[in-house]
Design brief:
By secondary structure, the protein is of the alpha/beta class. Helix content is about 40%, strand content about 20%. The protein has a single domain, classed as 3-Layer(aba) Sandwich (Rossmann fold), CATH 3.40.50. A 7-stranded mixed sheet has the order 3-2-1-4-5-7-6, with helices on both faces. It is globular.
């Protein structure tokens, strides 16, 4: 399957994602077009972007490299990659999300490009220097297959950054409600299974990256809560903290990370 546009799908959960995005676009819901700037999203996307930036530094990623943003949604990460000097291509299952992303790219004057495709099956016919797989793998029931497809689109030695909700997501009330009401797949991701499937896909030098804490205003209580959350996220799992893993495809040299100044 290529990245060509399609509107129908024979898997109910995937068709539900396509339909939800189309309905949101037709209703003109501003929070989808404005992510991550709209107040409805809070500060979460900015914490995630800070982590993505650090994770990419750990891989030795360099501006000018080509990046596949897999499961890009409305494309804010793709556009941020372009602003950071990379050459990104975003891919998403839902044509309406890709339409939202392309509209924003035109508004920004961005060179970011977008494709419609199923992350389980896609074949763009080319390879990239890196892959970003953020907040998308947990919507697929074919984790190992997605990672094989991602690896197949990497050049030898190319890097990958993965950021997904932990196994807590699978038991959270919000995820269960979303799955029940919208029909999406909402899984949690375990580090052990993620490492196993990455290794099976030919990804090596796998390394964890850990999320920073949130800003706080109350020095005592605020600091205590953030310290507890950071400790839990580092040594176990914590609500809202993603599981982050970086690696590269075997068979090529990995550039050294930039030195600290």
């Amino acid at each position: 399957m290529s990245g060509l546009a399609f509107e129908g799908h024979d898997e109910p959960n995937k068709q539900a994602e396509i339909d939800t995005a189309r309905e949101s676009l037709e209703r003109g819901e501003a929070h989808l077009h404005a992510k991550p700037f709209h107040p409805a999203w809070g500060i979460e996307p900015w914490i995630k972007w800070a982590t993505i930036t650090r994770a990419m530094e750990a891989t030795g990623a360099r501006p000018g490299e080509s990046v596949l943003d897999l499961g890009c949604g409305e494309g804010w990460t793709t556009l941020f990659l372009a602003e950071a000097g990379f050459r990104p291509t975003g891919l998403d299952l839902a044509p309406a999300r890709v339409e939202m992303a392309a509209t924003r790219a035109r508004r920004w004057g961005s060179a970011a490009s977008f494709e419609v495709g199923d992350m389980d099956l896609f074949d763009l016919g080319r390879t990239f220097d890196g892959v970003l797989l953020y907040d998308a793998l947990h919507h697929s029931v074919r984790q190992a297959q997605v990672l094989r497809r991602a690896a197949a689109h990497l050049r030898p030695g190319g890097w990958i950054v993965i950021g997904e909700p932990s196994w807590l997501h699978g038991v959270s009330p919000h995820a269960r409600r979303t799955s029940r009401e919208l029909g999406w797949v909402e899984r949690g991701i375990s580090v052990r299974a993620l490492r196993r499937d990455c290794a099976a896909a030919g990804l090596v030098e796998l390394e964890r990256v850990f999320e920073p804490t949130r800003p706080f205003t109350r020095r005592g209580l605020g600091f205590g809560l953030e310290l507890a959350r950071l400790s839990l996220a580092t040594f176990a799992v914590a609500p809202h903290a993603s599981v982050w893993l970086v690696g590269r495809l075997g068979g090529g040299d990995r550039p050294a990370p930039p030195s600290a100044v």
